[in-house]
Amino acid sequence: MSVVLTKVYEISGNYTEEEKIVYKDLIDDFRLAIADDIPEKNVTIGKIYQYTDNQIVALMERALRDLNCGYPKSNKTIVEMYNANSNLLIMGAIIFSLLREGIFQLRNQIDFNDSGLSIAMFNKTTLYQSWYGTLLNQYLQEKQNYKDSIIPSSPNAGFVGIMSEFGYRNQFDGMW
After folding, report:
1. Cα angle, residue 51 at apex, residues 89 and 80 outer, rounded to 5°
2. Which residues of 40-54 are buried (b: 16+ CB within 10 A; e: fewer)?
3. Are strands 110-114 and 117-121 parallel, antiparallel or unpaired?
4. How far apart are CA 106 and CA 171, in angstroms?
5. pLDDT tens for residues 67-111?
6. How does pLDDT run across 13-68, given as a tens digit for each residue?
7. CA distances (Å), 99 to each of 9, 69, 103, 126, 130, in order?
8. Which residues of 1-22 are buried (b: 16+ CB within 10 A; e: fewer)?
9. What contacts 45, CB < 8 A, 6 or more positions away?
10. 150 FRET partner, CA 20 to 30 A, in 8, 14, 46, 109?
């Protein structure tokens, strides 16, 4: 008789079953992307996950808010965004996690200099900045491509044109 193990997720919050299923998949993809998927091999942090499920959900929600703002504004839910472009959502969460880790490193940075001997303990800020900068450029480009794809699929997309001084609206501007 074989034993089947199921992974247990700790997602607290008022989410529908469909949202929980999406979050579970996004959590797994996020962990895989940042190499936080095998806690038994992660000896640097005591063989535990670096991020809890709820922290990853919070990063995903922050990425979703970022993707919904800007031009054109959208109002996608986590399920809609997951179906449209889950990779962009994961990349956004990674960007916000790197920003979080960079700030954490700044807070815990210890530099020591004595008689020409310099020690910089926990000084990974420049490493986080280089990864952040590289991924941020890629994220912003993909976000712009995604936003550009929203415009043709939005309602009234066919009624976009170039304004003219001979247009109907401009005839009556300033007369009243």
Report:
1. 25
2. eeeeeeeeebbbebe
3. antiparallel
4. 58
5. 998 778 888 899 999 998 899 999 999 999 988 887 777 776 667
6. 899 999 999 999 999 999 989 888 776 666 665 567 788 899 999 999 999 999 99
7. 25, 19, 6, 12, 11
8. eeeeeeeeeeeeeeeeeebeeb
9. none
10. 14
pLDDT in tens, 122-141: 666 677 777 778 888 888 88
Distance CA 78, CA 60 (A): 8
DSSP string computed for 7-54: ------SS--HHHHHHHHHHHHHHHHHTT-S-GGG-GGGTSS-SS-HH
Is the model's pTM score more than 0.90?
A: no
Query: In the numeric block, which tokens belong to residue 138?
Result: 């890629």
Residues sharing a CB contact under 8 Å with residue 56, sequence separation 6 or more, in sequence order: 26, 27, 30, 31, 93
Residues 6+ apart with CB under 8 A from 89: 26, 60, 63, 64, 67, 78, 81, 82
Task: Provide the 10 A C-beta neighbour count for residue 139.
Answer: 20
- Residue 114: enclosing H or E segment and its boundaries? strand 110-114
Token pair belonging to 15: 């989410």
